[in-house]
Amino acid sequence: MNVSRYISNKIDGADSGSFTSSVTKIAIISIALGVAVMIVSFAILEGFRNEIQSKIFSFGAHLTISKYDNNNSLEVEPINGAELTKELKRFPQISGAQPFARKTAIIKTRDEVLGVVLKGINESMGPSPMRANLVAGKFLTFPDSAASEQVMVSRKVADKLRLKVGDDALFYFIQNPPRVRKFVIAGIYQTGLDEFDEVYVMGDIRQVQELSGWNDSLVGGYEVVLRDFRQLEPVAETMLNTLRYDLKLDKITDQYAQLFDWLQLLNRNVIIFLLLIIFVATFNMVATIFIMILERTNMIGILKAIGATDNQIRRMFFFRGLDLTIKGMLWGNLVGLGFCTIQYFFHPIPLDPENYYMDRVPIFWDPSVILLINLAVFLTSQLAVLVPTYLIARIKPVVAIKFD
């Protein structure tokens, strides 16, 4: 029989109704709240990160390759798509690449006028990630015989111009000579990011090629998706040193630096917050064991008098702290994972898309992070338990037995 464990269990029952019982409940609650808050915080943080990154990547991919020029116009010089495709095949880190072309335009309806950028795309390399942002109508169709006359506008553009699915809209292209195209609104998308929603209209790349006088092999550039976004920096550096000198390579983190900086700042603030939570939970555990030792000073003296060693008594309080930690962690996981489950499936907490880029609090499940949180709380709590138990060696049996 493990004597230390046996006495620890007996203390658990004997403490009922005492001041120590109240303190242990506070310790369990503090650990439970710490674990729950950390699980929820990381789930929401990763949810924000993945949601915003997926919206950005659906529009711009990880890397953008275009012709190098000295102006900042959205309309770029054409490049040979077939030649660039051959060059991209040399990089195993690339999972896919889609051609694009852009053309500035003015949309005119009966009552409104609005400047936009027509972004031409196709699905020759697979389904476009923009399909995930569709909120009304249908995605563009790309017929084999001719360029599609369908376009997709954002919810903001549709509201400003009072357009709905199935409506016709006149697009005026300022060039020499000026041209006009009538397009049909096939669908309405919404990313929640003003950088996209207020500017871009999606259409068939062949329309942009015809308006610009390009042949089928010329495109405005390629949007490149990597197999692992975390390898963005080294892959971008390698590609920059390998591609032709007249090609420009833009990283998504530079194109939308303000969004990625915001995510980084959010991540830093959450880490500081979580460290404070761990500190509070650890401090509560130390205080709880201190109180237990003070209330059990008389018992410690008796145990020492009958031959118990300091390590045996220390293990007794260690097992007591272990029980409190496990109980707190179980309740914390139950509350934290329960909240995440409810929010993930039922979305009871909404958000303002104007400020947060999404209409509800996002949840991202990462079992490795949940495991690390529990491991960190368990280790810090057990280290906190060991600190006050070293006072046991300073307790003298004669003095402790008289202690009241």
Automatic annotation (TrEMBL):
Mode of membrane association: Multi-pass membrane protein
Pfam family, any one: MacB_PCD
Transmembrane segments: 26-45, 270-294, 330-349, 369-393
Keyword Lyase annotated: no
Main location as per UniProt: membrane
Subcellular location: Cell membrane
Domain annotation MacB-like periplasmic core: ranges: 26-237
Record domain ABC3 transporter permease C-terminal: where: 271-397
Keywords, alphabetical: Cell membrane, Membrane, Transmembrane, Transmembrane helix
Xref: PANTHER family: LIPOPROTEIN-RELEASING SYSTEM TRANSMEMBRANE PROTEIN LOLE
Protein family according to the UniProt entry: Belongs to the ABC-4 integral membrane protein family. LolC/E subfamily.
Record-given protein name: ABC transporter permease
Provenance organism: Hymenobacter koreensis
